[in-house]
Specification:
By secondary structure, the protein is mainly α. It has a single domain, classed as Orthogonal Bundle (Arc Repressor Mutant, subunit A). 65% of the residues lie in helices and 8% in strands. A hairpin with a 7-residue loop joins strand 2 and strand 3. The longest helix has 20 residues. It is globular.
């Protein structure tokens, strides 16, 4: 590729990720709306459904979210009665995030979201699996 080709928008890897991410959000929106969730709330709950009772710091690291983004997000989920935030008795500086009964019950309703999403993409399961593998490998090389 010639140097001037690198400067074209369509040749920017970051732009491909950005536009793909935006299009994915468009696909998620109507699937999450009946659950009353945004995409960021959904991935937060996905993480908690995998491992409940984590600290804010652990959750932020897993989701690649800073505290300025995570704190209002958790406050909203708490107001929705999906999580509770409590000080860790072992370390008062840490705040533990725990699912409420309502938060755990929502997992059942949310279980159909990934399957519906895959149906919306018109991409084979094999292609999705391969893409996911490549993205995870790429992320592991660039993440700090």
């Amino acid at each position: 590729m010639q140097p001037q080709e690198y400067m074209k928008l369509d040749n920017q890897l970051c732009f491909a990720f950005y536009t793909c991410s935006r299009e994915m959000m468009k696909l998620y929106r109507p699937l999450l709306s009946p659950l009353g969730l945004t995409y960021t709330q959904y991935i937060t709950l996905l993480s908690l459904w995998e491992q409940d009772g984590v600290t804010v710091k652990e959750l932020g690291s897993k989701l690649f979210l800073d505290s300025g983004t995570l704190t209002p997000l958790l406050k909203k989920l708490e107001n929705m009665n999906l999580i509770t935030r409590t000080r860790d008795k072992a370390d008062e500086r840490s705040v533990l995030i725990t699912l409420t009964d309502r938060g755990r019950e929502l997992q059942e309703q949310a279980a159909e979201v990934p399957l519906k999403l895959y149906g919306e993409t018109r991409v084979t399961k094999e292609d999705i699996a391969a893409l996911h593998k490549h993205i995870q490998a790429f992320l592991s090389k660039i993440a700090e």
